[in-house]
Amino acid sequence: MAKEQTFQFHIQVTAGDLWKFSMYHANKGYLGVFNVLFTLASLYLLVTRWMSAPVFQRALLAVCVLMFTVWQPGLLFLKAMKQVRNDRLKDPMTMTFGREGFSVSQGEQTMEVTWDETGRVVGIPGEYILYMGRLRAYLLPDRIMGEEKEPFAGFLREILPKERLKRI
User: Fold this and answer.
1) What is d(CA 121, CA 52) in angstroms, rounded to the nearest whole number?
2) Which of 47, 58, 122, 148 is such that its CA lies 20 to 30 A from the CA of 163?
3) From edge to edge, which strands make up the β-sheet containing 127-131?
4) Buried b (16+ CB within 10 A) or exposed e, 71-105
5) Which residues lie across from 123 on neighbouring strands?
6) What's 7-28 look like in SS3?
7) How is residue 85 annotated by DSSP?
8) In this predicted model, what pLDDT tens digit does every residue of 43-87 receive, in sequence order?
């Protein structure tokens, strides 16, 4: 009798993990394309019009260049720092994955989730995101998965249909 393959990860979410997640959502799809084009256009205007533009226009263009390259990432990091101090994220959680689904344990609470309840799994640089719906997701950072990342990715490809996996 073959032993069921399981994976178990002990997760302590950091501000960096939440920041990567927030940056992914803030810059994906058309919004990300807009951010890049807006920044490049502002930079182009700032460089080409530097000598002829009045000081207030230079300042405005500088603000436009910095908006998506410095301020947005900085604000998202501050928000992530605040979220990590939240009671729900302070305590580490344990996620155990098996063929039927996975369980999430934190403190005295345990929740069982079947694979049918899981929306999709997305791989971004540095972590996997398990979406449970539009408003709820679990983060699995690479530093937590370690050497188990590739076997776990193979496990996910075996368990979930291809349309529910992105960059796994």
Assistant:
1) 50
2) 148
3) 137-141, 127-131, 120-124, 165-166
4) ebeeebbeebeebbeeeebeeebebebeeeebebb
5) 128
6) EEEEECCCHHHHHHHHHHHHCC
7) T
8) 999 999 999 999 999 999 999 999 999 999 999 999 999 998 886
Place of tokens 């694979």: 115
The first and second tokens of residue 28, run together, are 């994906």
Residue-wise pLDDT for 84-118, tens only, equals: 888 677 889 999 999 999 999 998 899 999 999 89
Helix (H) / strand (E) element for 165: namely strand 165-166
Per DSSP, 5 falls in state P
Residues counted in the chain: 168
